[in-house]
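Exercise (ungraded).
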Amino acid sequence: MNKETDLAGAVAQLESGMTVGIGGWGARRKPMALVRAILRSDLTDLTLVAYGGPEIGMLCAAGKVRRLVYGFVSLDAIPLEPYFRKAREAGAVAVSELDEGLLLLGLRAAAEGVPFAPTRVGLGSDVLTYNPDLRTVASPYDPADILLAMPAIRLDAALIHVNRADRRGNTQTDGPDPYFDELFARAAARVIVTAEEVHDRLDRSHPGLVQRSLFDRGLVTAVVATPFGAHPTTMHDRYGTDMAHLSAYVASAAEDRGWASYMADWVVPGEAAYLDRAGGTEALARLPVPQF
Amino acid sequence: MTADFTLAELMICAAAEAWRADGEILATGIGTLPRIAAGLARLTFADGLMLTDGEAMLTEEPVPLGAGGAERPGFSGWMPYGRVFGVLWQGRRHAMVTPVQIDRWAQANISCLGPFHRPKVQMLGVRGFPGNSISHRNSMLVPAHSRRVFVEGEVDVVSSVGFSDRRWPEGMRRPEIRIGIVVTDLCVMDFAGPGNAARVRSLHPGVTFDEVQAATGFPLVTAPDLGPTPAPTTAQLEIIGRLDPRGQRATAVRGNPPGIRRAVA
């Protein structure tokens, strides 16, 4: 069994109109090389589901997005995502703005194959005002217990970046937090894993790190080697956020043809040119992992 | 015995009080002053508090701001976001946050300003505010007390819930909403007045109630024991210095004013 492919092969597993979940959290461990490949593709009309970082702003700026489902979109040290802001302030994308925990519960319901998850989260807030499709249910045990019925968020695909994968689809992450990648994977019909390193068999090359596994390999449909593929986001413990890159990205949003320039400079030439332009892999490996 | 202190240091000491009676729960101070305040509470009167390193680890020694490498303590537990939701849905957490807008019902907003479907300013999104506010106690810290923050009507997007009746489903047994304290650059408030009215508990040195009221978009009442916000002790200032060795607190309040205002000419 060999699920390894390249970025083009992974993008070929996606179709316009799909609902796509993106793993990681904010500006941490995002599958950015794959996002750049999507930016270069003719995919469009996507619904994105994420604890959002720069991937959300970029895909919005490139006109790839029909709908966003998120609890937040942020670049961490830079709190506001500039192109997400632009898209929202122009009314350019439909949104389901959810509590972070509701997003978790929606993914978990999809993973468990149930239509909704009962919760108090969201009640009394404007989450219900601006998500008019959300419904409440009365507890069958006590009708005064009224709960929000958070619907399952089913994904056509999940995109997840890890430190190591093998060709059979096993994964390992070294960071302090697995975030909700397992739920994204279980909620999805297919899972594309990009990895800093792809090995033949992790059970042979890295047998002592098995508890860093994110989920079982049977969920995974494609594995792609993308060294520094989370750049400019953080990849514990290999490299940190590229703050200079993110600052320039933020500044580009204030320019007239800022996004067109970013695309032309960073995305269009492809991943090898991207890493060169970013300073080369030796310099990238020295980017400090941020501490909070 | 007190020394010279800044307004930020006064606010840190006032903010630490939020966690005094909390026992063994997760204290989350988001932002420079709340984070120092949680560490100060842990090291002075709230030994049971659980603190994180700002990411996914629990620590028994508050991590100094900006600390790297050997300055960082060892870790006593693992608290990835998945566990944070477990803790917070149980109510075993008390966060201190800095909303962009707060209203008379203690509702707060960090989502966006203006109409939701085409906002004037898109901010973060509601983040965890809806779930936090229905699950556990929340305090707030406001570095610039003004009518832009303490708005006259309702906040633009109710991100964290409060005492308003407007949005609860019909027939629902209402959950208990727990608001801690609100520490600003002018005073310390809570929402424990009659009918959950906003109430001034203490005024920072040199600040009058009328000034606070003028900077607030809704009516305030005073606590029966209204007095001055206590000045930091030298012991507190020493701990604050250890928790923030690079002086990030100097940039938390505009102009980093002294804790005791000079008389206005």
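Further reading is listed at the end of the chapter. For now, observe: Chain A has one domain: 4-97+154-279. The first strand of chain A starts at residue 4 and ends at 5.
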